[in-house]
Specification:
The complex is a heterotrimer of chains A (273), B (226) and C (252). Chain A is an alpha+beta fold and 273 residues long. Chain A has one domain: GHMP Kinase, N-terminal domain (Ribosomal Protein S5, domain 2), CATH 3.30.230.70. Chain A is built from five helices and twelve strands. Chain B is of the alpha+beta class. In chain B, helix 4 (163-172) runs antiparallel to helix 5, helix 4 (163-172) packs parallel to helix 6 and helix 5 packs antiparallel against helix 6 (212-220). The radius of gyration of chain B is 20 Å and the shape is flat. The relative contact order of chain B is 0.12. Chain C has a single domain, classed as Ribosomal Protein S5, domain 2, CATH 3.30.230. Chain C is 26% helix and 28% strand. Chain C has helices at residues 90-103, 130-144, 171-176, 203-233, and strands at 23-27, 35-41, 44-55, 68-75, 115-125, 154-161, 164-167, 179-186, 191-195, 198-199. In chain C, the strands form two sheets. Chain C has a five-stranded mixed β-sheet. In chain C, strands 6, 7, 8, 9 and 10 form a five-stranded antiparallel β-sheet that branches. In chain C, helix 1 (90-103) crosses helix 2 and helix 2 (130-144) packs parallel to helix 4 (203-233). Classes of the chains: A alpha+beta (273), B alpha+beta (226), C alpha+beta (252). Chains in contact: A-B, A-C, B-C. The interface between A and B is small, with 8 and 15 residues.
């Protein structure tokens, strides 16, 4: 009902303590400003999907599944496969998530995650082309949000990345106009591992991985995704507040440094090289 | 107490056969008494009841509760008391009978996000709970650490005649305000607060165990302070 | 023709005809939900969450004398062999309705007038019998939420494959078999709260299938009970002797 207003109201006495602590470089949860909550990644639990990953950051929990189908390419990119990222904030995830069409927040979320994966060129779409202009592979990556405790941007993004990076798809052999599925299963053509880092500004403090309470009081939010080479490949600033130029520059460095850390963690937890 | 029979039960489970007085969270059908909740069933002195281990807070008149101001209109504040219903604190209950929305500013008293200690003034099947903040110890709470526990564990946290509160307060030099709705505010020295929060968590976790007071004392006397 | 039952009387997944698939039950798996449960039954992986009792939105749906029960059964797009469109299908809407009607008799809705209880079921991976597994999980989630209930609800299907009555059909058996009979019961009150039949059976076969499904329900009910008791008490029996401090000082 209360559309456009964050339904989580943080108690004033907690908010006061939170800002007091932040000014001294501490957080209510005891975390450091640039410290993530525990990240858990479990892959391959949906046998019916080509790839899947359940990721939790703190109490936020999502599950992503990859499905591959045959499709027709877009006329302007006849030799590229398709990539579709879709996110459903399920009503099981929060008392404020209602069934029905996605809210504007849910759509922003899905699009930002999509951008991080697409713009990083994680998947070599040209390699998904079977017959130029006619037949390509369409990679669907669907995310179901199970439990919300802040920073869904990164939780969903890591789930997509982990599911794609560990997916095994049917290999197709093309001779002329004929497409034959082989017995072989091969990994998706993964070129890089994009990692997003979401930061929040609360007064003068810049923190990473805001939890639900921190999101409810944050002035502004910034998500930056980097690729394996440390290039920044996607970004989104959110919320009504702003950042100073210095904060943006600081955020860029945090995104690259933290991104490196979380990329290693993701690689280790999914067992990819 | 002699003659008490205890049993762990789930909803629909037969507790006992025969004619008994029905206490909380049970129902009878053809002289059989069944539980409606997951909990500890007790049969004593001809009465059967179940102490539930989960469930939300159902308001009762005169309960002391701690709530959060969630919204307001010209005539009342809407208060989240962690229940199935939002409670209402009428402006007249704060400003007096001659309250006028034109003259009195609601925000001067309570803002969204403020915590209030209140009593349930009225509640029944036909209307939402009404709150009152007039009385000693009621009104705005402007400091302290907020802890939320399952409301079904509140009686255990209070203890027999307040014995458990006293144990925790004495061991931590803190003061505890315990709402029947499971919201608790702890005030005191910082290390005391940390200890008290740990003690509250322990009580919530082990509410159904027998030697709880000893466990809490052990925690408070420092051996397991962290 | 595929053989769903081999010469030794074993099924495609190696089960005997009266055997359930391996299953796993958990409660309290989600943090935000008031109650939650997870079930694996064969390849089924299903989460159930309960929110409520809570205030009713939209307000005009409010019932003056009892609680409004709503139920949503939904499949994640990756849960099926070919990707499922995330928008609810007619099948999902029908199942949502019969699940709600199967749960409703177990709930004492009169205890919560003017409120709503939402039961959300998400199928993360589907196999045969997902509606039955959903019900078994949903009942656990409702008990976990601490809502007053007359009984739990537990469900299991039986069916007919290659002329034989078997328990708990998997995907292949469901697709290629002759009949499927999902049954849900309130085990203590001996009431059937869900019954469907899909396929043709004789009078005798119907009786056998129905009784076999009830047996499956009994086994699952024991597991439901054990899951709740372990979750809340950690062990099977309460202490009888110690003079327990009264848990009640505040009440009465």
């Amino acid at each position: 009902m209360a559309i456009g207003r964050n339904p989580i109201v943080v108690e004033h006495i907690r908010k006061t303590r939170m800002t007091e602590l932040l000014s001294k470089g501490n957080r209510l949860s005891g975390r450091g400003l640039l410290e993530y909550r525990p990240i858990k990644i479990e892959t391959g639990l949906i046998e019916k999907a080509s790839g899947s990953a359940k990721v939790s950051i703190g109490n936020s929990q999502v599950i992503a599944g990859v499905k591959v189908e045959m499709g027709t390419p877009f006329p302007d990119t006849p030799n590229q496969g398709l990539l579709v990222v879709n996110t459903e904030v399920l009503p099981i995830s929060s008392r404020y998530a209602e069934p029905g069409p996605p809210s504007e927040d849910a759509i922003e979320l899905a699009r930002v995650v999509d951008r991080g994966i697409r713009e990083s060129k994680m998947i070599d779409l040209q390699k998904l082309c079977l017959i130029p202009g006619k037949k390509v592979l369409a990679v669907f990556i669907d995310v179901s949000v199970l439990d919300i405790d802040g920073n869904l941007f990164d939780t969903i993004s890591y789930a997509c990345t982990a599911a794609l990076a560990t997916a095994k798809i049917v290999q197709y052999e093309v001779s002329g106009e004929e497409i034959k599925a082989s017995e072989e299963k091969i990994p998706l053509p993964v070129k890089t591992i994009p990692i997003s880092i979401t930061m929040a500004r609360i007064h003068d403090a810049l923190i990473v991985d805001p939890d639900l309470e921190e999101e409810a009081v944050m002035d502004a939010r910034l998500t930056l995704a980097t690729d394996s080479d440390g290039n920044i490949c996607a970004g989104q600033k959110g919320c009504p507040g702003g950042f100073t130029v210095e904060q943006i520059m600081q955020a860029k460095d945090i995104a690259i440094e933290k991104g490196k850390e979380n990329r290693e963690l993701l690689k280790k937890m999914t067992g990819i090289a | 107490m002699p003659g008490i029979i205890r049993k762990y039960v789930v909803p629909g489970e037969l507790i006992v056969d025969g004619k008994y007085r029905l206490g909380a969270n049970v129902y009878a059908s053809q002289d059989k008494v069944y539980s409606t909740r997951v909990g500890l069933a007790e049969i004593s002195r001809g009465e059967v009841r179940v102490i539930p281990l989960s469930g939300s807070y159902i308001p009762r008149v005169d309960d002391f509760v701690i709530g959060k101001i969630k919204d307001y209109s010209a005539f009342a504040w809407e208060v989240d008391i962690a229940s199935c219903f939002y409670a209402y604190l009428p402006a007249q209950a704060v400003f007096g009978r001659d309250y006028s929305p034109a003259q009195d500013s609601m925000l001067d008293r309570f803002k969204i996000g403020d915590m209030v200690a209140a009593k349930i003034a009225a509640f029944d099947r036909t209307r939402d709970p009404l709150l009152s903040v007039s009385g000693p110890g009621l009104g705005l709470i402007n400091r302290g650490e907020i802890v939320k526990i399952m409301p079904t564990k509140v009686p255990r946290l209070i203890g027999k005649k307040g014995s458990m509160i006293k144990t925790v307060e004495a061991g931590t030099s803190c003061r505890l305000s315990i709402g029947q709705n499971g919201i608790i505010v702890v005030n005191g020295p910082p290390d005391g607060i940390a200890k008290a929060v740990n003690a509250i968590r322990l009580i919530e976790e082990e509410a159904h165990t027998a030697d709880l007071t000893q466990k809490v004392e052990a925690l408070l006397t420092g051996s397991g302070g962290a | 023709m595929t053989t769903l039952i081999n010469e030794e009387g074993l099924r495609v997944d190696g089960r005997r005809i009266d055997q359930l698939r391996p299953f796993k039950l958990e409660v309290g798996v989600l943090r935000n939900a008031d109650g939650s449960a997870y079930i694996e039954m064969g390849k089924n992986k299903i989460v159930a969450a309960v929110y409520g009792p809570k205030e009713v939105h939209p307000k005009h749906q409010t019932l003056p004398d009892k609680c409004l029960l709503r139920c949503r059964y939904h499949m994640s797009p990756f849960s099926t062999d070919t990707r499922k469109n995330p928008a609810p299908s007619r099948r999902e809407i029908e199942i949502s309705k019969i699940l709600r009607e199967a749960l409703e008799p177990a709930l004492i809705l009169g205890d919560y007038p003017r409120t709503a209880i939402d039961v959300y079921i998400e199928v993360l991976q589907s196999d045969g019998g997902s509606r039955c597994a959903s019900l078994t999980a949903a009942a656990l989630a409702l008990a976990d939420a601490g809502i007053n209930m007359r009984d739990l609800v537990v469900a299991c299907a039986a069916g007919k494959i290659e002329g034989k009555i078997v328990l708990d059909l998997n995907d292949a058996e469901d697709k290629e078999g002759e009949a499927d009979v999902p049954v849900a019961i309130m085990p203590n009150l001996n009431q059937v709260t869900l019954l469907q039949l899909d396929g043709t059976v004789t009078r005798e076969e119907f009786k056998t299938a129905f009784e076999l499904a009830l047996q499956g329900c009994k086994t699952l009910y024991d597991a439901q009970r054990a899951t709740l008791i372990t979750k809340y008490f950690g062990k099977a029996e309460p202490p009888q002797q110690e003079a327990q401090e009264s848990q009640e000082s505040q009440e009465e």
